[in-house]
Each structure stands twice: as structure tokens, then as C-alpha cells.
Write a structure and sequence with these properties.
By secondary structure, this protein is α+β, with helices and mostly antiparallel strands. It contains 3 helices and 9 strands. Strand 1 and strand 2 form a beta hairpin.
């Protein structure tokens, strides 16, 4: 077979379809993540924790998990971060003055690459589907809290007040630290 511009188009089309199938396979493989570890949020994904000091004794904290991070893990990581910020700043307990949790729901998409059929000197894709599974939602969670640091004994009658040392001790075994070092 001699090389002609038409043959290049046929081969180019087939190569593009094979490459597309490969990319879809890679994108699906990327969906099989591990839970977001306890580490600072870096780069464009914003997964991990953030700390913003608002006043001498007031901080805004956040923790964002990926699709593989259960809501309870995001909540535990945020509370653990609050305890660590409190202790690193020489305080004994903290009060959560404001908190919010945001859920981002996605539905998995599966792709089946097309098969290729040769007819009359042409190679053409046949079939191939993209299916969305609406019966299997996947959630990622982002939680934020504003905390107020204080010294001495925590108020026993306030459910939004936490003893930082006690809380850190209880949550430490549950925390999965990441590879990115952070101050907390």
C-alpha cells in the first residue's frame, strides 16, 4: 500500500480513536483515589487543610477531601486541626463560633471504546458508549470552622467548646498523615 494523504487520514482517525479510548481508560483509573490525608492544601486540587489567622486568638480553618474521603474523616481532620492550632498557640481550649459543611456530588461516568471495522479501504469506529451511573453518587466534602482560642478550663456547659489536649489525644490515632509536611 502506498502512502497517500487519504491513507494518512484513515490511519490518523484510527490512531485518534485508540488514543481517545486510552485517555478515557486513564481518566477512569484516576478516579480510584485514596482518601485525602491530613496535610496542607497545595497546588490546584485544594485537598487538605487551610489555616487563616483572623485575630490574635481567632482562626478560620478548612479541610477539603476528595471523592474517596468519607465525611466523618473530613470532620475528624478539621477537629484535629483545631486542636493542633489551639495547642501550638499556647491555648487550652477552643470554641467553634461558626462551622459549615459543603458536599459536592458527582456521578461516575464509564466509557466503552469503539471497535473498528474495515470496509472498502476505510477504517471506521463502530459503537462505543459513555454511561453515567446515577444510582451511585460520589461525594466530596469541604468543611470550614471559625474557632476562638482560650486559656484555662473549658466551659462544661457549652457543646461548642473543646479541650484541645483531650481532643487531640482521642483523634490522633484516626489521623492519616500525608507526604507533604505542614506546621500542624
Amino acid at each position: 500500500m502506498t502512502e497517500t494523504p487519504a491513507n494518512h487520514r484513515r490511519i490518523g482517525w484510527r490512531s485518534r480513536m485508540i488514543a481517545l479510548g486510552g485517555l478515557l481508560t486513564l481518566s477512569l483509573a484516576a478516579c480510584s483515589e485514596v482518601p485525602t490525608p491530613f496535610q496542607p492544601a497545595t497546588g490546584g486540587d485544594d485537598e487538605g487543610y487551610t489555616v487563616t489567622q483572623l485575630e490574635a486568638n481567632r482562626f478560620r480553618l478548612g479541610f477539603s477531601g476528595n471523592l474517596a474521603t468519607p465525611h466523618q474523616m473530613v470532620d475528624d481532620n478539621l477537629l484535629y486541626l483545631a486542636a493542633q492550632v489551639t495547642l501550638r498557640n499556647g491555648a487550652d481550649w477552643f470554641l467553634i463560633s461558626r462551622a459549615s459543611a459543603d458536599k459536592d456530588t458527582r456521578y461516575p461516568t464509564f466509557a466503552t471504546p469503539p471497535t473498528f471495522v474495515a470496509a472498502g479501504g476505510w477504517i471506521a469506529p463502530v459503537g462505543g458508549t459513555v454511561t453515567t451511573d446515577f444510582n451511585n453518587p460520589q461525594n466530596s466534602w469541604n468543611e470550614t470552622a471559625t474557632i476562638l482560642l482560650s486559656h484555662g478550663r473549658k466551659p462544661a456547659d457549652d457543646p461548642n467548646a473543646y479541650d484541645a489536649r483531650d481532643l487531640a489525644g482521642h483523634l490522633a490515632p484516626l489521623i492519616k498523615r500525608g507526604q507533604v509536611p505542614g506546621p500542624y
